[in-house]
Task: inverse folding
């Protein structure tokens, strides 16, 4: 599956435009930025994910004989153009923010520098991949935040929007801090922990609940989590589980490995009652896992109510990002190279000021408070700008420019966020493993202030423009309105 | 991609339960039903989709050497069990409602009859595939309904939840009545029409809008839809489009092929203004296509406001079913075969009456009013029941049993909805092409009353139980509460 060829996974208009450029013999090098306009799920930040799959996609780009034949059959494309496609490969450069990074609206998280025919083709697939994984990583990060010390298990495969959504959704969820996934294929492909208990059907296939529990416990004494809600949680499920735990303990099993799972009913009430019953029976270490339509808000609320839940199985809401199932990443032209090899900044106007793009060949500098290591702001700059952190730095809001902050030299540090991924067609980036990315992501979240991480009405991180970028943008806008 | 092996695309617990049954030497034939509890998006019906991919999945089930090796590395599974998996293939039977059918909550849309080890494994993938495609087909059907005479184009690939969500989402959208998709890979794989115009970047890559339009029109005179909102829709976009149309007309191009696309701003206002400008310039046949975060409600509303829009490009909301991104299909044990080969009905209790399952080996009879051909009700029956449509038929609500309807013999017709798909491991079903399914789906929607099709507060179709099934369910429930 790693070598799946997704070359035709593109919008038809990318191909018709490509042919247009081909016919015009117009193939200047251009820059496209991928960015998004607002965080999903009212979050204060997003998590970057999907770069490894973008790299695989770019590496595997290649129109097969069948692909070209199919396109010929559409009767839209000339033989010359089809000939060009047969020999197509990506010769451009790509820069991107590493996976697992915290990212913010309006800043490019990936940029493509390539002849326009090549840059246009890859738009759809790059957006598809990044939009999906950034979305699920961001949602999962919120759920993990709500769960605090309790581990979150990704259990959503059956409700995911198709096989890839389950697979790459699990990948994104692991990056964002889940402790495991139920998805065995994800476990195999990404070398991440797989987890699970048993279903109601296990219980129902035995003559009674006790026999079913006993059979399961004897088979899996080292991971003995029993689902207690098939018939009646407190009258039947928990007492039967305790009976089995007692028998297992007598046989020498480790009570730290015992647990129950609640999958219906009032989880706050049932978990507290079950905790009491387990404690009184001498199983204070037995864990209580909860599942059933959980999301970050419900987990937060259950914890507020003192629910005695140690771990959380989260399905539908996480794997579909149910309250906000799309990440609005876009792919916009930022510059065109002229005959002299210079990038001429381009801008897209809009009635909506928020939708006006940032022109030019850009990068992002992240500014941290030196003492705390927390993020002060992100600064979108031209890629050849330099920030000397020993000097004072003036930050200002790019819309309400009177809102200013001056950072004293020596009190802040700077990190350039974009890294080279492809240089002139060659991949120069080695993706870390998913668990390495997860570990990096955890550090990244440490750079956020608590005010940004909170679930409700979080503080939005400042994303400002450098003075130089601001001036160029303003000039372009002024020119545009004069010609209006 | 058709032969992708998704065998490990399962929840870990399916495998741990399988090993449990293996160790218990418990492998009776069981019946699992796939059903859902409510229509997504407040719809009055759902559309069945995904069966072809379920069939491919079942046919390709096979644990490769690498799969078994990966599972061995988890240190959870015995060598005997891994040996069994190496030789695994599906030997069971599957019955299903054909794709494109209208379906309703609580009735099985697919049933698996197989040894429990086999039936358990396939739960997750079957649900993943059906949940996704039924969801998108249902959402797309609503959007198509709202658009009425105007064609709906599926434009969502870049916002879909990963490659498969784009691909199979496009498939489901075509089944439900979209006229085309932008997704070229979907076009290739499913032989469905692909469509598209051009992007803002096309315009921006030219010195000015007029030159960009002219270049596009000369290249694609037979499908000349120009995107008019890059700079200013009414001041620049539409006048430039008209200028190009005039030049093209002089050169002999067919004005029926001209059109504009609006992708921002107030679509009602702009479309009416643009219509007037096009009409006055002598292009009354030029079409107006609209896109920009459309869904069924916005389309309905735009039409109410008299928007002059002929076709609709729908992306994010359709491809993610944004207001309801999960279809709640579940997979529940309904019966276990005893030593005598009889299926003993099984039931799952729940505090929530709605969640109690329907026991036994069942099928669905759809009852139509003979004169109109419209659906009167669906009747869930045991699979060996027979309905003689020359006799009177008493229907009653399975919860509020005093709500009764008697259908006079001769006034109704009956159709059994489930068809054999696999019989004892052999596939006996040939999937129709996607466009054939789409054509069948259109007929299927003709069997719904207008009251069921409407977007707001639709009439819910009756799904009743046969007298025999009702009695068996009642007895099982009574037995359960006695032992409580």
Result:
């Amino acid at each position: 599956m790693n070598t799946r060829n997704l070359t035709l996974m593109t919008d038809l208009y990318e191909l018709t435009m490509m042919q247009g450029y081909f016919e015009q013999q117009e193939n200047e090098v251009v820059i496209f930025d991928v960015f998004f306009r607002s965080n999903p799920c009212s979050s204060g930040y997003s998590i970057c994910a999907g770069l490894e799959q973008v790299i695989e996609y770019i590496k595997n780009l290649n129109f097969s004989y069948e692909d070209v034949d199919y396109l010929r059959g559409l009767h839209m494309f000339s033989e010359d153009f089809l000939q060009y496609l047969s020999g197509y490969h990506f010769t451009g450069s790509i820069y991107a923010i590493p996976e697992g990074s915290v990212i913010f609206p309006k800043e490019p998280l990936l940029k493509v520098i390539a002849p326009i025919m090549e840059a246009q083709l890859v738009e759809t697939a790059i957006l598809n991949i990044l939009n999906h994984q950034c979305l699920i990583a961001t949602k999962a990060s919120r759920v993990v935040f709500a769960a605090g010390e309790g581990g979150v298990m990704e259990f959503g495969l059956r409700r995911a929007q198709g096989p890839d959504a389950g697979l790459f959704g699990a990948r994104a969820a692991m990056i964002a801090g889940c402790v495991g996934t139920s998805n065995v294929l994800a476990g195999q492909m990404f070398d991440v922990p797989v987890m699970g208990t048993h279903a109601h059907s296990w219980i129902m296939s035995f003559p009674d609940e006790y026999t079913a529990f006993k059979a399961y416990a004897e088979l899996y004494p080292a991971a003995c989590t029993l689902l207690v809600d098939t018939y009646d949680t407190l009258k039947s499920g928990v007492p039967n589980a305790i009976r089995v735990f007692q028998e297992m303990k007598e046989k020498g099993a480790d009570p730290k490995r015992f647990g129950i799972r609640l999958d219906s009913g009032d989880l706050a009430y049932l978990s507290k009652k079950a905790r009491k019953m387990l404690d009184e029976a001498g199983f204070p270490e037995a864990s209580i896992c909860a599942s059933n339509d959980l999301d970050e808000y419900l987990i937060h609320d259950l914890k507020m109510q003192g629910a005695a839940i140690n771990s959380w199985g989260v399905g539908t809401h996480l794997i579909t990002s149910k309250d906000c199932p799309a990440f609005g990443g876009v792919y916009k032209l930022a510059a065109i190279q002229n005959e002299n090899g210079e990038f001429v900044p381009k801008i897209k106007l809009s009635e909506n000021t928020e939708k006006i793009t940032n022109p030019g060949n850009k990068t992002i500098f992240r500014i941290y408070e030196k003492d705390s290591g927390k993020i002060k702001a992100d600064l979108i700059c031209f890629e050849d700008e330099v920030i000397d952190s020993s000097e004072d730095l003036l930050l200002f809001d790019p819309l309400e420019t009177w809102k200013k902050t001056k950072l004293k030299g020596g009190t802040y540090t700077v990190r350039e966020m974009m890294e080279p991924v492809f240089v002139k067609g060659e991949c120069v980036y080695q993706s870390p493993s998913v668990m390495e990315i997860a570990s990096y992501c955890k550090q990244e979240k440490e750079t956020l202030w608590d005010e940004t991480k909170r679930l409700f009405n979080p503080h939005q991180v400042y994303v400002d423009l450098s003075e130089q970028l601001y001036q160029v943008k303003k000039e372009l806008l002024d020119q545009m309105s004069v010609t209006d």
